Amino acid sequence: MVPPTCCVPLSRGSQIPVFRLKFAEMDLTNIKEQYHQLGPWLIKTTESHILNASGDERELFESKLDLPCTPEMLFSKNSLSLSLRQDEKEAKIEFLALDALKLVDKSKVHVQVPAAKQWSRPHFHKYSILNPFDWTFSTTYSGTTTGDWLVQSTLEGLDQKFIRSRDPILLFGSINLFEDELGDNGISLLNVKIRVMPTGFFVLQRFFLRVDGCLLRIWDTRLQWRLGDKYVLREVKRLDSEMWLPTMVGVQADDAEQLCKQVVEHRTEKLFPELL
């Protein structure tokens, strides 16, 4: 899927907005960072290597979770940050693997594979009996906010003209937070994408789940901000497949949305930061 672009008319009202742009990219010790200043927002993406399967770093990460098992591929240093700063005050929206995994259900198994399936990772069977948890790592995470924010429900939808326009891309990031192949029976993947344009930014976080023989799941969070807006518009839309079809085997995230017809949750809200 080509990530959505974002744009609004250059002038919102009668004046052309003035903003400062800045871009920097670093690649030090396997850490890649991108920065961009768009109006009041400092936007930062961080990408690094997969967390080792064992060792002190892995143990420290897992000690902050109450899960009997974590995804095979953890990108603990990967993140997206959208921050506002004024004097000593800061308001921020971040997307982080650790915080996403904290919202995985630790109390019960949500998806059962068909009895004929033979898991290639037997410890999943052990955990499902002795210590049930959602081994699909499905998460209702929609970002981490810090600082002072007012959240209001709204009927306002995303600006489709803004999302689909072809304005120049000032910064693009596609950042994996975690991934697991579910014992070769599918995939569980959390990814966040951002496009920064001269007139705003658009974020898509997608949790994609495919359990072959059982379920497809697309749980999306979208953020939209346009120059002149005093709020960030956040849409949360969670879709599951109604039934399993043979054609779903091997389906990837880009093609799964059209196959997921059951609406689990759909809400839109405005996030008003004190600093805007």
Automatic annotation (TrEMBL):
GO biological process, one term: TOR signaling
Organism lineage string: Eukaryota, Metazoa, Spiralia, Lophotrochozoa, Platyhelminthes
Descriptive protein name: TIP41-like protein
Family: Belongs to the TIP41 family.
Superkingdom in the source lineage: Eukaryota
PANTHER family according to UniProt: GAF/PUTATIVE CYTOSKELETAL PROTEIN (PTHR21021), TIP41-LIKE PROTEIN (PTHR21021:SF16)
InterPro entries, A to Z: Phosphatase_reg/MetRdx, TIP41-like
One CC-aspect GO term: cytosol
